[in-house]
Specification:
The protein has 15 helices and 19 strands. By secondary structure, it is α/β, with parallel strands linked by helices. Strands 1-2-6-3-7-17 form a 6-stranded mixed sheet, sandwiched between helices. It has a 4-stranded mixed sheet with strand order 16-9-8-18. Strands 12-14-10-15 form a 4-stranded antiparallel sheet. A hairpin with a 2-residue loop joins β1 and β2. α2 packs across α5, α5 packs across α15 and α13 packs antiparallel against α15. It is globular. It starts with a helix and ends in a 6-residue tail after the last helix. The chain binds zinc ion. The site of zinc ion (ZN) has 5 residues, from loops.
Amino acid sequence: MKKPILAALAAVFMLCAVLVGVVLYRALTFGAPQPAVVALESLDFSIDTAAVRLGEAIRFRTVSLAGAEGDDPAQFEHFHQWMQSSYPAFHATARREAIGYSLLYTWEGANPALAPIILLAHQDVVPVPGDTVASWSVDPFGGSLRDGAVWGRGALDDKGSLIALLEAAEYLAAQGRRPARTILFAFGHDEEIGGESGARRIAELLAARGVRAWFALDEGGGVIDRHPLTGAAVAMIGVSERGFGAMRVRATGPAGHSSLPPAETTVSTLALAITRIHRMPLERSLEGGPAMDMMRALGSELPLPARAAIANEWLFGPLIQQQMASSPPGRALVGTSIAPTMLQAGVRANVLPAEATAIINFRIHPRDNADTVLARARAEVADLEGVTVEWSGEPRNADPISSSSSSGYALIAGLSRALSPEAPVAPMLVLGGTDSRHYRAVAEDVYRFAPVVAGLDEARRAHGVDERLTVENLNRMIRFYIAIMQTGEHP
Ligand SMILES: [Zn+2]
């Protein structure tokens, strides 16, 4: 009687031991090596002059031209003239083309056999709403220098990048140096409103010319000083960004008086449809997007319990999903996000509306696409009479994931490690949208990164109040771009 129980216990114990062994082994061997540091040359440019020029750039109120009252295209024209007079050596050597208010510069490289690099930055900024001006510590368009930073709308997003690129190019051009590869500078003028007449047209022009770049590099990633997973600095290189779709859900039925209503009205049916679609079980996991590669890159930096869980997603999948689902950024990283945002129905309390509609906003994860998401939503409401589901406007899929094992990634990551040695580098999914997605067809890979070291609070100032860029960050960016412009053969 006792013996079989003991044998069973022993078997269970053995099984547990093996399981723990596997979990631990996978945890301890989990991770990918960091890319090698790329050496930086010592430079002597004047960072003070660069900071002053960033301040000047901020004074041009290049708010995106939204086709609305208050649009001021002259600001872009004046900004362009200022660029030409402030960066004469660069303008003497690079070819400048205007595409609307967007600018494309072509700086021919010494070796035409090497694929070019496309460097992006946008000229436009978001407005400063009148009721927020009083909350600023400085004039939002004053470009003042204070506490070791340049302040004003656009300092972080994205005139800092634009000025750092121009400073880098001017530094090299003034010494009579030219890049090894051709460098294409693409400065859009409508990034904040979608980039349709800026980035998109520049990319189309490049495609028509048969350009196939080594990589395109834009804003969107940086060095976060305290990463939620590791509690320490991490350099995040954006390798993809989520797609966007507005789904229209419509319920129709007979109109009439509400004193004798049917069992379901168009409004109640719509409510049901919204709830079902909102909760539909789309896959959420670390695989199928950049999340697992990010975890792998952070490998040994992760606390052991987290590492053990992530390295064994086969076992701890539900736990990880629960953890990830507990915060909006976590959810966004592992799956498509769904947010009902608009509702329309009815005109009077006592009238049954013949139609009720809603818009549900989707941010499409790289694992999903607009077709599969729509099919899934339709299946959820197939049994609801009078309900139709379609995309309102053209949905956009997530940007295909760029390689985190390419030579271009290694260059960007290696330079980040040289500039911020304390920060391991990891690929990431960009949660917002940037101009870079338009360049997919003309570049092998598309990356989003600038070596700006900042906390989340600091990053939130972009589009918010008291936006600023520290002079130290501007310095890092200029050194970073100078190194990129000089890259010849793959590192
Ligand atoms: Zn931006």
